[in-house]
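Class, study these two lines:
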Amino acid sequence: MADSDLWEIFDSQKTETPNADQMDIQVQSQELNEAKNCDNVTKKNLSQSKRTTKTNKSFTCSECGKSFTLKGSVKKHQLIHTGEKLHTCPQCGKSFMLKGQLNRHIRVHTGEKPHACLQCGKSFSQKIHLSRHLRCHEKPFSCDQCDKKFRSSSYLNKHLTVHADERPYLCPVCGKSFSRLANCRKHQKIHSVKTHACVECGKTFIILESLKKHLKSHSEERPFTCALCGYGFKVKAHLNKHMRIHTGEKPHTCHQCGKSFIQLSGLRYHMLRHSGEKPHHCDQCGKNFTSSSILQRHLLVHTDERLHKCSLCGKSFSRPDNLKQHQKVHDAVRDHMCFECGKSFIAASHLTNHQKIHTGEKLFSCSQCGRRFTQKSHLNKHTRIHSGEEPQTSRRYCSSK
């Protein structure tokens, strides 16, 4: 019987007392209406309905009470509490909580870099590193006076003071003005008295916050750990700078030669090569240096003080960081790893020298034959060939330029 026929029978007999047949028709009509409503439920609504039911399911961590929608998620989360690391690298033995972490780590050994930058062709082992690297190419903030581009509005605003020659920050002591607040604060240290002293080494600071940061250098605690290589840092800013080693990000570029650097201090030091400037002068021997830190190291030559002694072999050092570096020889700690080939080194400077093998960078050139070298020590050794300090047999290497 058709749907319309049912409705006609129902309408013609609705004023009469319902008998058994009429009741049966009413039931059939109601069933048809319900069927119509069911037809209106689309696949999309059904999918949403299923999703809502799934979302309402909650899996709770018995340790901290945190809830998850998936059972697998709570299992992964619970590894944080247990500290269990089930996935071990077959090459170096390092263990990880999650299989995905192990897979990413293995790329350190294999050298696999599946994520490539479409703009410069540089490749990365992880997608997040590529994302960070892409910021180097993104410079949406443009200066309308010189067309120079910047990654952020704050960098652009700092740059604009060059054109405006505005110096809104005034030193209250001597009246000298500055375009940037940071430069003004740095200048004010000349006038300030250093009242905050370190109880460990006696070093004094103008600002209490600077002392607090310094105190971390005496502590062995390294709460900020790199998720990729496991190296720990005392200050979060140091971890952020370290991450650039993995991402390949070099935000500080030399405008004369185009070379880029991970840290601003590296660029500043590099710029002195172009200018030839050596502003730091030794009063005892007249020698000049590019930075104050190099001058301070040099001054120890004149004093010959070696206050820092190795407890294992008795060797003495003029600086505590030299002693710390030396002690790694005894501990066999090689915490500076090359992410190209996996080789590890005791000192960061050794790693830097090693990485030139992969980059092919040869900064040091022989003025007599034009041959280039990755390290200055190699150039010095080579120049002895020309001076006659080494046997004649070594001269055969001079032919290749």
User: Anything to note?
Assistant: The chain has 15 helices and 24 strands. The domain at 85-151 is CATH 3.30.160.60 (Double Stranded RNA Binding Domain). Residues 94 and 290 are 42 Å apart (CA to CA). The chain has a mean pLDDT of 72.
